[in-house]
Amino acid sequence: MTDSRNKDENQKIALPKRIWNFMWGDSPLPELFNINTKLSPFDKILNVTWFVLLIISIGTSLLSIRIPMYLIITLPILMLALCCIIILFRKEFGKQRFIQLFITIFMMLLSQEWVDLPSYFKNDYKTVEGIPTKFEFHMPRTGPRLWEVVVDDVKFSMPEKIKDESSERWFVIHYLPHSKFIIDYKILTKAETRTELQTLK
Predict the structure, then answer these.
(1) Of 51, 95, 126, 155, which sits with the fewest C-beta atoms within 10 Å of its C-beta?
(2) Are 4 and 13 in contact (CB under 8 A)?
C-alpha cells in the first residue's frame, strides 16, 4: 500500500518536472537563458522567446472580446509563427521543434484573427446595420462573459458592458470579414432608432 502511494506521488512530481525540462531544460530558474546545454546562446533566447509569445498568445485569445485593438491580438500569434519557423530550421532543437510546430498551428487555428490582416491594413471592413434578431447574455465557466448578438444574420460576440436595453436599438457594426472581429460599433438612441425605422418604411 505504501509503495503504490509513493509511486503515485512520484508520478505527480515527475509530470511537472518533465514539463519544466521541456521548457527550461536542467537549468536553475535564475539562469533563465541556460535552457539546454546543446543550444547556442541564440537558440536559448529563441526558445525562451517562443514560450513567452505562447503565453501572451493564450492570454490575448482568451481576452479577445475585451481587447478592442486588433494588432494586440494578432501580433503575438504572428510573432509566435515566425519564431516557430526559425526553430524548425535549427536542428539543435531535435524533436522539440515539431512539438512547438504542432502547438503553434493549434494556436493559429484557435485564434484566427490574423487571417484578416490584409483586410485590416486595406481598411476593407464589412458593415451591418439593424436591430438585433438575437440578443443573449452568456456566462461561460471559462473565458469572458459576453453578449451574443445577431444583426442582419451575422453573429457577433460583444463585450458585457452593453446594456440589456440595447436589444431594441439600432446597431451599426464595422467588422473584419473572416474572424468577425469588431473594429467599431455604434448603438443608436431610441429616437435615432425610430428615425432609422421610419426611413425603411
Answers:
(1) 95
(2) no
The enclosing H or E element of 59 equals: helix 41-62
- Provide the strand spans (E) within 74-118: none
Beta bridge partners of 158: 147
Candidates 57, 60, 50; CA nearest to 84 is 50
Give the pLDDT of residue 33. Answer: 39
pTM as predicted: 0.70
Which CA distances in Å does 64 have to 31, 91, 117, 146? 33, 35, 15, 11
Cell of 18: 518533465
pLDDT band at 46 (very low <50, low <70, confident <90, very high): confident
pLDDT tens-digit readout, 138-154: 776 666 677 888 998 89
DSSP string covering 132-146, please?
A: -SEEEEE--SSS--E
